[in-house]
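Fold it.
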Amino acid sequence: MSGDRRRLIVVSNRGPVVYGRDAAGERVARRGGGGLVTALGSLVAHHDVTWLASALSAEDRAVAAEAGGEAFEERARDGSPFRQRLIVHDERVYALAYGVVANPVLWFLQHGLWELLEPGRDLERAWAEGYVPYNRAFAETVAEELERAPDAAVFFHDYHLYLAPRLVRERLPGARLGHFVHIPWPEPDAWGRLPGPIARAIHDGLAAADVVGFHTARWRDAYVRSCASVLGEPPSGAAVVHPISVDPAELDTLAASEAVLAAEAELVANRPELLVVRVDRTDPSKNVVRGFDAFGLLLERHPELSGRVRLLALLDPSRQEIPEYAAHLAAIEAAGAALSQRFPGALDLRLADDFPASVAAYKQADVVLVNPVCDGLNLVAKEAPLVNARDGALVLSRNAGAYEELAPWVVGVDPYDIGEQADALAEALALPSEERRRRLDAIRAHVRTHDLSEWIAAQLAELDRATMRA
């Protein structure tokens, strides 16, 4: 990546640092959760970043109030400084925007979870009274920051902020705007499940960006087709493909950290001969229940593995304020209990947000299972191979965006086919050591070459090209 530092305004629902209080009542700052923050966290080391995000906790709101609603200096884990500005939404606005529109409606629609998608009569009210003012608050804040730094490039991220590019464009026509969609983009007919004005507003909002980015050609092409279908014309801005990646140096440092080494020592002391690992949020799209069923079927079909192999599932409880997500966590726990009853000791299920424990599990995995029903990319598929210490194999859903990059070196699976997943686990466990090492080395070489810094540089180059053409 070029060494030139740029002014960037990064805009996302969740920020890189969230605030709380410890047992002694002292304010503590911790890393924000979610794959987006994980991927973009090291961006601040390369550029002069102002990061705009929602104030999500009571302590976030207190920090925002102390800053007078303005940006304040914060530091990344590596010590790199950046400006963070927290947007305090009306609680009802945020609940409607996040809990009714973005999750679950947009998330479920874009991940093909039709059985959970129930837009209902409340959607139009939640859109008008929640999603629209939520996006307007972000757009107004972006405009304020651009008035201070008109040379800055703006990078919106994800499905919470589909309207914001148009709202900024109306106020500042010359703004340099990029939007990256980190989740799948469905085919045009999927958008017919939403009221027409909402589907059009989504596409029109995105089309106002100079560049709209996706992780795969599959998602990019679907976006172009849906713009033509919903708006009657293709997007005027560039639609590009640049799969996001990770910061290898950051992962290498974390893998050698005291917290990870302690978690790894505990795993080593209690590990079976063979360890299958999955690291996920408890999101319906992550397909955890079918993964448990597939592991049980593996043990049925291969009784010789009984007592020799264990599934370690490290799951971060996700969006529990939304009924569908709470119900899905209950289904995961029930499926886990059933698996443990049938095969005692075969499952180690841990429900916590604990990234050091996840990295330790990556290191000790003989097989990493990544089987989402659909995923924009899935960073686990890139993180785990980088730090794995056992020539671990990767079983990867063909509906994960990362499959487009990593297909030659993984065991691919249909996420809906439990039998195929069981067979894939057996195949991965039985791969000769030389083949496992060859595949792992190839994935590592690919990820280290196509790392996060390359992804950032590609976004800037695309935006430069788009604005020069304009």
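The mean pLDDT is 93.
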